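Hey team,

Filing this mostly as a record. A colleague (T.K.) asked me to run one chain through the structure pipeline before their review meeting, and I want the input and output archived in the tracker in case anyone asks later how it was produced. No errors, nothing strange. Just documentation.

Input sequence:
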Amino acid sequence: MSKVVMQREQILPLVKNDSAPLLFSSQQAQDEWFQTIREKPSYQGMIAEIREEANLLLREPLLEIPFSRFTLFRDRGLRLDYEKLYFERRRRLNTFALMALIEREQTVYFEQLQDVLWAICHEYTWCLPAHLKNSPEMDTGIRLSGIQTSYTIDLFAAETAFTLSELSQLLHNRLDPLVQKRMIEEVNRRVLQPFLQQQEFEWETATHNWAAVCAGSIGSAALHLIEDEEVLATILERVLRTMDCYLAGFKEDGACTEGYTYWQYGFGYYTYLADLLLTKTAGAIDLLQGEKVQQIARFPQKCFVHNHHVVNFSDSMPTGTIFLGLMHYLNKIDQGVEVPEADLRAPYTADHCSRWAPAFRNLLWFDETKRGEPWANQSTYLHDAQWLISRQAPYVFACKGGDNDEPHNHNDLGHFMLFADGEAVVKDLGCGMYCEDYFNEKRYSFLCNGSQGHSVPIINQQYQKAGRSHTATVRNVSIGKDVDRIEMELEHAYDIDSLQKLKRTFTWRKGTDPSLLLSDFYQFSENPLSIVERFIIPDLTLSSTNDGIVLEGEHKLKITFDRHLLEWMVHTHAFFNHFGEEETVQTLDFAVREPRRLVQVECQFTFL
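Output structure:
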């Protein structure tokens, strides 16, 4: 059991209510801080982004969210149309709240803020429709009392509770008493009381971002609003138990197998709670201590490859930005957390979900004295996740083992990527468009998720299978000055009885003109029907040479292979990315001409 778990009796004496604010020592300190950042040159770029967004929103009306949008997921499995309006409303909330705090004399911002707060308090639910299947909110039975007695708490309901509770503290002396009353009542009715009174929510034992975001938000809202020490201790005991489950989802290497985007999301909310709890308990409860938490905090410096590009295994975006406030805060606690260069800072509008907690803390935790640097060249092996990432600017090689039952799982054992100046020349599609089928039994029919959309073999026309038993076994890893090498066994990734062994070996030669040698050794109990080596490449021009193929991107990549052993073909595929935009990609397939019981296939990838 980790030290995150504490009993209610241990927590109670640590949360004695002294009425001290959690974010600023006094109202005067808060006012002075906002006045200071308004004047300091180092904040002007960030404030200008918020002001620009505010001026755009002043020209747009506060939109209703119609019933027809709300039922789109229920009736057709579509998410984006409703969520666009939902997140636009949260963008208004964040923007006008920040401007009301920064430019207090501009009353128009405060007026708009109160309007959007009132509208959010009137929303039928704070949850997304995609998270309401079989929920009380969708129960159409008529109640004689007319009162809903149980509630769903999803990521966004919990986040909204955190947001409103924090704003009620920051603006308590300015909000209209009716707005203040309604905000606190709705946070209590929709989130805090259901958390206290209802049975355990499914996410309370999750080992991924849901645990940290939901529990972190609820714990933060409780710290802001609940004065009864007994009740607060009860909530925090349960919250800390969930945070322990979240940490259990990481191994000692600190890798977030959900991908960088979900690290930023989940560990961000873990940190937001940790900070408030540290203040509330005068340092007695510190969730950010310990070697494992330190390794989790250092994950970004390992998974960024070049500028904004990241190793985007699983449901991760191919590019990322940094919440600079969060990184400055983590660096303050652990100097082993590297501060990235300022160019990686997330612009104000980068978070399409418009979450208050990071938006505010990007200002609150920003440290103008910290000067970031580009990520250093290094080769990193994350032994628990079985990721090898070799960053040798401007070139990067990354591959993975693991298992096919990871959070936001893709069937991708043995998959790899190659980058040059951030351009992915052998790529991962990352996160597709979320819809109902994306998270049900049809998940692996999507190109983004199934092994058909990854650079792994197709054997007897079969793809890899999902599940914990479908796993890679890494047998050897060596990292050297000039060469990195990793060897893994992949036969258990497939449900093919005749496949006795599939050993995949990557040999990455670093230097001025780096090259990757991929070697696959197959052993079968009988002759296979087919073996295809598949590689996922951008939709770029291919040209043929005597001994291979050249991919004509900004950086040319030559793929050398044995033409007597293999024949090649290329196909273009369309898919929808996370934002519902259509993209195209190519699958480059090398088929073994005469499949036999023992086959060795080699392909060399050389940057020209």
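Quick notes for T.K.: Residues 379 and 480 are 9 Å apart (CA to CA). The longest helix spans residues 80-102.
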